[in-house]
Specification:
The termini are far apart. It is built from five helices and two strands; from the N terminus they run H-H-E-H-H-E-H. 73% of the residues lie in helices and 4% in strands. It is mostly helical. It has a two-stranded antiparallel ribbon. The chain is rod-shaped and about 80 Å long. The longest helix has 53 residues.
């Protein structure tokens, strides 16, 4: 192989290698984002458990729902540190109220 043929060959190998590496990097970023979301959910569950044990009782949905409308507003969620931390992520329709169904769907998605 001559020097003349070798340089284009090296350029081709480098270009193919770079093209193949890009999807792998994108997958790594997605996996990292999913891992971070799972860690945040796990931290929120730990905070929830710590808050419940520190207060001496488990807080029920009804005890957090101060106005009794069946859903928890952002203001009501502030009484529970773990719920306040995940409120925006769990509020699927972004209406400022967290329903039991939205909360169940969020916790189920975080356990996958």
């Amino acid at each position: 192989m001559t020097v003349r043929n070798r340089n284009p060959l090296f350029a081709l190998v480098a270009a193919v290698g770079a093209a193949l590496a890009m999807p792998a990097m994108a997958q790594d970023t997605r996996a990292e984002q999913e891992r971070q979301a799972q860690e945040q959910a796990a931290q929120a569950r730990q905070d929830t458990a710590a808050d419940a044990s520190a207060s001496g009782n488990d807080q029920s949905w009804a005890s957090l729902d101060a106005d009794g409308d069946g859903s928890i507003s952002r203001t009501e969620a502030q009484a529970h540190a773990g719920l306040a931390r995940i409120f925006d992520a769990a509020d699927a329709d972004k209406d400022g109220k967290l329903t039991p169904d939205e909360y169940r769907a969020y916790t189920a998605s975080q356990q996958k």
